[in-house]
Amino acid sequence: MQTHEINNRFIEHFRSRGHTVVPSASLILDDPTLLFVNAGMVQFKPYFLGEAPAPYPRATSIQKCVRTGDIDEVGKTTRHNTFFQMAGNFSFGDYFKEGAMEHAWELLTRPQSDGGYGFDPARLWVTVYEKDDEAAALWQKVAGVPAERIQARGGKDNYWDMGVPGPGGPCSEIYYDRGPQYGREGGPIADEDRYIEIWNLVFMQDIRGDLSPKQGHPPIGSLPTKNIDTGMGVERVACLLQGVENVYETDLVRPVIARAEELSGRRYGANHEDDVRFRVIADHARSGVMLVGDGVTPGNEARGYVLRRLLRRIIRSTRLLGVHEPVLGEFSKIVRDAMAPSYPELVTEFDRIESVMRNEEDAFLATLTAGSKIFDMAVAETKKAGGNQLTGDKAFQLHDTYGFPIDLTLEMAAEQGLSVDEQGFRNLMAEQRRRAKEDAKARKTGHGDLSTYRSLLDQHGTTEFIGYTDLQSHSRVL
Ligand code: ATP
Ligand code: MG
Ligand code: MG
Ligand code: MG
Q1: Where does the record place the Alanyl-transfer RNA synthetases family profile domain (predicted)?
Q2: ipTM of this predicted complex?
């Protein structure tokens, strides 16, 4: 089943069950706690927080999401994209746990010939919050899930809150068992690669009064009206229904891999290292196009920096596949053609998208060329002195002045038979971060202090955006 059809069936399922169909919000919303929209519920936050009355009791959407916190997983796990689509249904004081379970289970297990996804119910598992006995009982009652396929988890995994006083509640996730060839027995708590998480149901029922609900503090009350927020990963469902190995091989992502194969003359599936590169290219190309489409431009701060990092990783990965010509314009076209049926604005905006991509690539290739000269000189000096290791100093200079990610330096050095003093590099990075922090403190610029932000990005790759729970930590970063 193609992604387009998966989306259509989702929307139709919930539309016919009284949900108002709401279009995806932009990836960029005016929300100081988030760089990018990372879940379907974000555009509905005012209703969940009680800041505005919900204009409808039930809603459904297919939301564009970007989770840069998952960037290091891309290409390595089977299931993490930086850009993905989250299909969701929402209840604002209307149906609650039982309704949410019924709706989800029915869509997943109804035969494909009858408008559903046709998953074999015997391969579905669920998790519940360890204190949510009600959910465990309802899964058995509503969906007939046997007790041995219901697993309890602690607050870290299965309790949702915003990290600040306000609404919170237990979650329950639905997983699909891909079978013994994919890993260990024992359900999702044993192996999340074999058991793929496809859908998360959040039951908003509590009022949180403290800042550390995850540490076991009980709620201070119950919400007067209870809400439902769910998110189903469209790419994950596509992966399972298309019988492919991972989310990068699904119909809307794979075409970029095919183009990269043509450009490089290498074949996807031939060796693990190249395969990871192919997947990174395809994933990031899509994220890049979607971000530029929504108005992000590459830069050295915040959103622009995340975009820049994604684009540089594409360029670096294609170079490691042996391609040295500009590629971003080319990949952007492939992404546009794959995504345009659902996102027609990619066609009308394409000239702009393409020119942003080309300019960024030209600029990066220029610094790459300049940096490569410095790199070559450093290699020559090191070899002349009989050494076999590039200094941390050099790696730091390449990073700081020429934007070389450390893994690029590592790979290029390895090609020359050299190692890199990574510890030295990391010490210099830490030193720089400390300085930036001190500066920030001294200047007390608060919100606008992007040097701290930049160094945090450098440190963590990108700021962590995990689930719905990162709001607090992220607002601290900004
Ligand atoms: P995981 O544990 O696999 O990282 P999650 O628990 O972080 O997923 P949720 O925050 O519950 O994910 O998001 C709701 C749904 O969105 C998930 O059940 C999954 O199907 C999908 N999803 C989450 N992150 C990604 C991603 N990086 N790429 C593709 N789909 C995702
Ligand atoms: Mg999870
Ligand atoms: Mg989840
Ligand atoms: Mg996650």
Answers
A1: 1-478
A2: 0.99
CB distance 198 to ligand 1 below 6 Å: yes
Ligand having the closest approach to the CA of 468: 1
Structure tokens at 349: 């905006």
User: By alpha-carbon position, which residue is closest to atom 5 of ligand 1?
Assistant: 467
Residue keyed to tokens 């990290």: 163
Q: Distance between CA 249 and CA 279 in Å, rounded?
A: 8
CA distance 111 to 152: 29
- The tens digit of pLDDT for each residue in 259-310 reads 999 999 999 999 999 999 999 999 999 999 999 999 999 998 889 989 999 9
Residue by residue, what is the 3-state secondary structure of 233-278? EHHHHHHHHCCCCCHHHCCCCHHHHHHHHHHHCCCCCCCHHHHHHH
Q: What is the DSSP letter of 334?
A: H
Ligand 1 within 6 A of CB of 38: no
Residue 64 Cβ < 6 Å to ligand 1: no
Residue of 43, 97, 138 lying closest to 226 (CA atoms): 97
With a CB cutoff of 8 Å and minimum separation 6, the contacts of 260 are: 268, 278, 281, 282, 318, 321, 323, 327, 331
Please give the torsion angle defined by the CA atoms of residues 94, 96, 98 and 100, in that order, rounded to the nearest 10 degrees: 90
Looking at the CA of 86, which ligand is closest? Answer: 1
Give the model confidence (pLDDT) of 185-240 as tens digits. 999 999 999 999 999 999 999 988 865 556 667 888 888 889 999 999 999 999 99
